[in-house]
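Exercise 7.
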Amino acid sequence: EKNENLSKAMGIFLGLGTIGYAFGPYLSTFFLKTFGESNYLYIMIFGIITAIAMLFYVPKIKPREIVKNANFISALKEIGANKICLFLIFVTCIKSLMIMSYGTYIPFLLKKYDFSITTIGLILTLFYISGGISMIISSKIEKYLKLKGMIALSYLPLLPLSMCAMYFLKVNTALAIAFFIATGFFVLLAAGVVLAHAQKLVPNNAGTISGIIQGFTLAIGSLLLIPVGIFGQHFGVEYSIILIGAAGFITALCALKMKI
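Solution. The predicted structure, written as tokens, is:
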């Protein structure tokens, strides 16, 4: 029951954060179209006001007593000795690559088909909102599929969904948009579950593994975005999207073969 509550809490926490983040693309494109590029930087004022409000109104939490024997190197050794934990880090690196790639290349692809900038922003917003919703409900699905099944369900559909979206861009744009939004739902479905399970594997270093999964993997995903971008420059944006979908598909197959 405790493990179930952790997955549920993690899914809600990450999901709500993603939904909040999701409004960024639409609001930024709306602001850009309404006020122009010269006034675009003024949008930072909203961020500054929010930061000040959080400083004064978010409840202060008393810091816990620092463990004197805590050692970052020993924490990394414990994490490195756990094969399942390393695999979950790999899974999250692929997720980071996919989510950043979709967020980068979908706008280029839609612009190619003459979508307006505000429409592109709205599609990205719906993409991330669907991902946030999937994380919130992920713990309910996990009851039936467990960790291995969740990774498979999250990553296996991405390649066919991406290919369907690109096909329907030429035939039916409404269906193409629906497939892109469905891709957002699945790509983030297992994110909270994976993080919760990683914390369970190394409970004494839950903070370190959380930092690795939530921070380090984003850096790795960003680095992997470079060769994907070079690939797309030579072969086209469509093939970059197919490539990252294939990476998710292979990752799902690896998860199904592992004893997790």
